[in-house]
Design a protein that fits this description.
FAD/NAD(P)-binding domain, FAD, FAD binding, mitochondrion, FAD/NAD-bd_sf, about 475 residues
Length: about 475
Amino acid sequence: MSTIDFSQKINSTSTRRRVAIIGAGLVGSLSAIYFAKRGWDVLLFELRKDLRVPESTPSYLHRSINLALSARGISALRIAGSNLIDVVLSQATPMKGRMIHTGEGKLHSQLYGTFGECTYSVDRAKLLMLLLDNAEEFKNVKIYFEHRLKRCDFDAGVLDVENINEGTSSKIEADLVVGADGTYSTVRTQLMRVVRMNYQQEFISHAYCELRIPPKRNEKGEFEFAMDPHHLHIWPRHTFMLIALPNLDKSFTCTLFMPYEQFDAIKTEGDLIAFFQLYYQDALPLIGEQNIKKDYFLNPKGSLISIKCSPYHYKDRVVIIGDAAHSMVPFFGQGMNCGFQDVEILYEILEQHNINPEKPQINNINTDNTKEMKFRKDLERALDTYTQFRHIDVTAICDLAIAKEIRGMVALAVPESHNSAVHYGKLFHYAVFGSSAEMETTKFLGECGRRIDHFGYFCDVGVGIAVWQL
């Protein structure tokens, strides 16, 4: 095994402790910013190529659902500083409610609240590039693309990392490992070797495919939105649905959710057009027949998975966050938001336990060992606190998002009484606009879920619950 001297990239005489973050996606990049601000030396590893390199961009396209930024994510970005949230919101489109498109072609607006509540449609690629740029502004952050984590010796604090271009492997030392490497996390797999992890995964019967509504030209020949841009548009059709979120270029990113069997049944362009003429008559002219033929057969049909596990850490050595810890289906629009909130809460807990990234100066071996042991014990307590506190919140959202095997495609049920309507409204605000403390009230959330299951099926892809009778 060859060894690359990563200490040359970050000063080997540094008095700061080192954190190795695996995964430079949205959550990993934000985590790098938080740790860098706290004073850690940060090594950020990513298997894929750098999105900011033009030739790498196509590999990131057509692979993920458009994002709705809400309260949890906004809070984490705001605390990250550097006016990050201001830049993000300046590039986002506010959505004040849902626009339900019925089978009869009627439109019904449902506002999220009476106090101006809204979520924000954001471009995943632009947001990731912004976070990467911000992370690289810190001198104590180094990012390594096209590097694969092979294995971890957590007790020794050593990682084996492979440069996939050169085919060489290196041993990396780190005081702490943060796994932000997504749904199929290598860090989580390695963590399973050293802890008695409870693990559950479920693929749902639905897949998704991205489509696009292009901007239209007005009477002056200028581009404008084809629909109201300040709504999340939803076409619910029993076992499947179409959604659309606005983009800054005045287009809409659409996502079609259907069981795999229905995707498989559409084999020809004729089948596709006939399907949309039957179920999405008003959407077809907005997308355009030629556009839909190209996008539907070109873009992949992505699978949807829910993952829950516990614990999220091992001793004082490693912690997993984001989809690596809790991958959720997108029917509450909280995957990214919960991942961002993971970073914020982990940061707060490290602060509460006075985790100081400064290494003790080498003056007296006995004194230094005592300080090191205290650091390790404090860090282990902090990570244990994080697991205990965070697991309650994200498990509640995962369970609500999967919504009884996505039966919510059926109906967006109408409550049968005023009390039920109150529960719907409260559940929406808890899930989308609530704080972490509020999400701890799992008893209340469970009661809401039982009421919803009693009255019918529910779902609002992207942001919450839409209440509408088809």
